[in-house]
């Protein structure tokens, strides 16, 4: 079913056959008293409301039809009040295995994951400080589960880099800028900065859920990614015999303070140059990504993007490029 | 030297002989080019400037004369510009051992520490939840070092309960109110609340320094007590086989959120009734202590206390007690 | 008509006959130029849109059909766009007298009013300070109208304890906690605290309207409950010969400052321990009620409540109860 | 003693004989163990430290020598560390009666009080609304005590119009602008505006103490002037049979909301045009007075005033006046 | 077509023939795959959705049918879901010239523009300071384009005086109050105040677009009206030989600071009495206009206006006028 | 007089002969009625109080002895209350010309000005966009006065880069980081960014006074550097025939928004990626400089700097450098 149409391309009357992700699923009672199934089905290109009016047409376990499940569906595109929807004839639960490549169902980073992992490994290899090198290696190489999650998680639920691989993409971009900054400002400890950058959002792999839809985990809501990653770092450092306490404090300080202000969820303010730098470059990278995306997106047309809730302003899309020549 | 005069009692001309705590110490050069020693010497009753004009009168290592050291001094009280100061004839460093009972040098809790520890143990014994009981016991009984620090630390550097034993006094007071609240509101998990109360400030044992003067440790400034105690709790829970993850999250949540608002240093808001309760009772207890102290203190006289920086207001000291009788 | 179906139980096709409360009522002109009546009808279980397409079917005075009136209606349940509504055949205004027990139409406190009034009287009887006792008695016993309103009013329009009797329920709950606090902290004047608690929201009886729907009165919007109750207290005190001015100031201070911060509508900050305590216990009680309600409510399912506008966060619903046993 | 020198005119060596106001007074113990009296003595032109080294030279009751008392003193001007001070030979308490005209001791309004009272009476006479006229007359004419206080009180402890008569001066200035505004904007009820203006700060007569020094009374600190005047207005309205409730609400609303924002101590926001106007004109008048004063004052010289804490900025003193002529 | 019905008067079934303003215009694809035109058509009385189902019925250039264009339309009023809409039979672009008087399409100031311009000229003629007079004359008289725009622009996109001529109406109203204030407060430079008032919002002529609908221009969004008018003033002053730098600074200061606070977009705080006055009177005038409008408007009925987003509160509509007489 | 001792090196009894800068100067009257001169004299290493007790010893015009003047002085170092001061025998005004190299009197940038100007010229030469190139060249090359001021001004009065040449040093540092960022993020217009960086603080050359002491000019206080440089840019662009309006808007937007938030004095928020970048890099560079300086400075000793008012926190001075090796 590699040639399944993407949702954005569907037109009224089209037949639909294949796998879709159920973002929402609810059994409801119609005014006439009969039970029906209402779904929101999605792939990476968009989503549609879908209805199965006769629940007896469900194959297999009805309970398996729930939010965040993949479904195999058969039906056709209809129009209601000017909006397209799916009228389903058959629905059944689909195991992950038969669905194949997940990337069809989620927004993904523009950069291929293997390429990004290679860049990550290059950064790890460049670390000269033995303690920092060991700590990062324990977390990003030896811990295969964390490495896999780090390569897959988005950077946020909304705001910026909201796509699979987004966390890694954002982290590497900040790391790139940090490399430049360490060259530019002579007084920074480059390896310490790099540790701060690579670790500053690593807790998002557990704060966010992103297997099927992007949201917060219970632990994410209760603790937040900063507290999570602080714990992971301390635990990892604790397993390295002789790990210097001073270094543990400085790395934790960068991570704890990287939101820059208490009201943004950092329990302490940045008090070292390295912590200050990581905060600024992280914040800048996220906000620039929102701006670049707003400039590429053409929703609504015109020189101004729709109001961005992430930045609380509209973005000016018109880009200046030199024209003509100065008269003399 | 049990009959050494307290600093508050000294008058001009008195001889001074005995141990005092150096809160500040600096070697300076006089306008005439000779080196002298300027000190701020304290006991629990107050402090005085002190000068040793001839540094050759120092016995032993000059470098040992530094802030937060105990000193043995000999000298007399003089007056300069209407203020008393000490003119020293001899000074030497004094080891802790010879100084004896530290409580002469620091403000101490009004409640005896042994009595408070007994109350703490009673609370620990009352816990019915096996996991919570084990966790608290591991931290407050089995870890003798933490137990000792918990009995000695102040609750804050300034603000409230600024005395040795103040942390324990404050914690027990909050626990007492929490017991009442759990009886009053039926829907609270009492053992969970108790865990939150006992652990909410335990990181202050490491955030604050209080052996000689009250201040912040480096780690305290870089991480804050909330991040510290969160780590300790996770580590302790990690050492208890089978410790329920759900419980770990709920306890950590109380601790992380107990400042109540992000701008006060909590990375998450209280999202459970237990967390909300601990936040309110903690805040209330600290602020009430400030008010009671302001009412007892009679500085400046009158119905109003001096401006309290902790509460950003003056406190009304006049207490209402019923007088006379209603006419009918 | 005691067996009238509650609105939540209605299904398409059901006949409806009986009394309902009009929360909204408007005469409108259809696109075809004919006049019809559009209503929002409610009982304690919920509400429904209702339409009378032929206004000639109204019995009696058309003008009496307005918001906050009880109506006698006859009609049937229909469905439009998947939502139930009422198609009415007959409507007439209904006097309060024929409607009978109002509690069928409004959310009511879980605690019976007589039981709560008894608890209130017990508190009044426990006051030892003769002036405070007389003041409270004049307001809550001698003033029958205020007593009745105090027993009926909700504690708020939204936020917390939004039900008939809610103000009394909330007040008694705060009083219960205050009793514990006065026992716990030795330095509080218990009768003064009690006066503050019982009076802190009494102005809500006039700030809110709650005979038919919950809203603000004109006076409530223009003055707020704090200014209202301050006036009532001063007037009541003024009628007691010899009432001590110092006591009047201290009670008024508690009431005026009980929102705790200027930006929350208190013109002064709490400057006595009694005022501080009343503020904290009031705030805590209201917020805990919101949390308990959010935990009981199962809207949307899952571990998290919908976003609470009162608390500006989601509430975690999962409650911890001990399981298993610690391995040794 | 009408020709007593003002403090600002004193030079070293001058003899001093006459009445001065003690702003501060304290008995202290010198380093040599003898008791002496330290005073801060003031008249309207300034203040000086003063010392009586031999307390046996006090005539009459030593206890009567306290802050805010008038004293009769005899001594001479000396200089210490470049500052003038008084060395006293004799001191005794002086009753108000013998002191004569108080205005020698306090800053006073630039406008004579009788002239201002006449203007006030003219405004009262211009009121057409019978209820408003009666209310204002009851408060500002019939209540002789309030009228006297209203003519004497300052408008604030610091900030603006800090002088005897300042409250009346400020009130009349706002009233003058309000008259203009009512003429300019057609939709305002002029008598209602006038009532709001005249009453908006009347509680300051009891919030502030100003017999000897400017400060807050206990009641002022506990209730604030807004709550006080609201009570007075309600009480006065309650004594006028048939006083319209709607009018009482609208006047109280202006008074309660006149600080314009909750965080500035108003429990409600201005919700009528009259309330909005009174807020703006009150605020403007106070701030302009600060600016005009800063421009007249030449402290420090230069184009900029010292930092004004009332306005949180420096004021530009240079005033533009047209020069030269435009070339054509 | 002078007798064209206004949109507010249309009823179902009415024929429509004439010019309307397209506030929105979009070509869309129906579910059946055919292209149609969806419009929002407006005149000064209101707006309606309109549909042309067969785009072949468009006369002339389809591309000319766009937002902010005038259109000639022919069609009839239909009803859909209880709302009126237009079903169009023919549509074509209409040049401004054939449309005639624009005031039929936009809300306009209640005051006639010629009358307002006359008042403006009177103010200009009254200026005594030669430099200020010349500057204002260069901008408001000599610059015909600016004068025309100043007479046509609204004062804001939303908030207050949102109508053609609104900027001039608001400016003159502030100027009127400013005249009173300069008479009332003796220390103000009247001509400087007047310059500040007339210039304080003149940049809105370029910040806002108001030829067809009210919005922000690109430059308005990028620079804001304050920066724009500051530039214009500097440029105009620069063209007057010998224009005093001190005066330029003082005028610019008023303009730059007139929003009163940094967070409202003024880069500096008002530091002169003239700047403070202009800020307060400007703010007051705008807010009063919102209140008066809310009182006149009867939307929703009752004593309270709907929630005003401009003022973040509801407005009390009931106006007090004296009734009855005081009993004696 | 190239071998004049610096102020920091002076000891009691030293003779002083040479030029010093008068930061403060005042003629005062001693308690004995004679006139004396009190000065604060400074060079780059520090400052001292100085007194000339006999004003007849002044050579030349007494009026020329004023703040911010260079003085030639002769006297000796004395000690008063433990502080050194100068007792002067002779004083006269000194013209700039005879003083020679100013850098002896002010803190100066660590980078030589010629080197920095060369770097600036290199950046200018690298601009490809003809309009931007011309604009920058007109301002930084053709306008010799501005170029000279740009090379001399500090970057701030306090906060960061407070030294002669500091503005240029800061600007070049931001430019360096901006070059890296433009390489890193592909979507930025490098020449536009560079223009924004070079121009973002150029108004400080006129906002600050720095010939003698660092402060604000009148224009600086009244307008702020943002409004000043916006005007200069517009004027310069206006003189280049055909300068594109779109480019002018985009450059002005960067400059106007570069403080990032309205409450920090930017009248608009950054709405383009280029504006966002300039804001972040400017802010980061200033704050890093403060941190690096705090780490280099050893005032007070210890791991923590004194409280930095610029950053509202203490800075951690201990720098991590790898030690030892990881055990395997």
From TrEMBL, chains A, B, C, D, E, F:
Domain annotation HD: ranges: 167-287
UniProt gene name: yhaM
UniProt name for this protein: HD family phosphohydrolase
CDD domains per the UniProt record, alphabetical: HDc
NCBIfam families: HDIG
Record bears the keyword Hydrolase: yes
Keywords (A to Z) from UniProt: Hydrolase
Cross-referenced SUPFAM superfamilies: HD-domain/PDEase-like
UniProt keyword Hydrolase present: yes
């Amino acid at each position: 079913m590699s040639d399944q149409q993407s949702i954005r391309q569907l037109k009224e009357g089209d037949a639909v056959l294949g796998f879709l992700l159920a973002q929402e699923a609810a059994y409801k009672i119609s005014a006439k008293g009969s039970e029906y199934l209402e779904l929101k089905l999605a792939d990476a290109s968009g989503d549609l409301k879908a209805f199965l009016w006769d629940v007896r047409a469900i194959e297999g376990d009805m309970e398996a039809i729930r939010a965040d499940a993949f479904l195999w569906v058969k039906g056709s595109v209809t129009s209601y009040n000017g909006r397209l929807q799916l009228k389903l004839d058959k629905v059944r639960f689909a195991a992950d295995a038969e669905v194949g490549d997940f990337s069809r169902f989620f927004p993904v980073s523009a950069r291929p994951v293997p390429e990004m992992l290679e860049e990550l490994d290059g950064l790890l290899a460049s670390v000269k400080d033995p303690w920092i090198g060991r700590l990062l290696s324990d977390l990003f190489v030896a811990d295969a589960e964390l490495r896999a999650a780090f390569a897959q998680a988005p950077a946020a639920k909304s705001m910026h880099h909201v796509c699979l691989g987004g966390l890694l993409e954002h982290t590497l971009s900040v790391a790139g800028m940090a490399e430049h900054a360490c060259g530019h400002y002579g007084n920074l400890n480059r390896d310490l900065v790099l540790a701060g950058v690579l670790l500053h959002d690593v807790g998002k792999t557990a704060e966010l859920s992103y297997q099927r839809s992007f949201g917060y985990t219970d632990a994410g809501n209760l603790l937040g990614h900063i507290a999570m990653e602080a714990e992971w770092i301390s635990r990892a450092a604790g397993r390295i015999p002789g790990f210097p306490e001073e270094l543990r404090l400085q790395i934790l300080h960068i991570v704890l303070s990287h939101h820059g202000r208490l009201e943004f969820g950092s329990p302490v303010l940045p008090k070292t140059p390295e912590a200050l730098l990581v905060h600024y470059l992280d914040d800048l990278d996220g906000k620039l990504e929102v701006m670049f995306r707003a400039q590429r997106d053409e929703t609504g047309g015109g020189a101004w993007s729709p109001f961005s809730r992430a930045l609380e302003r509209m973005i000016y899309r018109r880009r200046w490029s030199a024209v003509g020549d100065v008269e003399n």
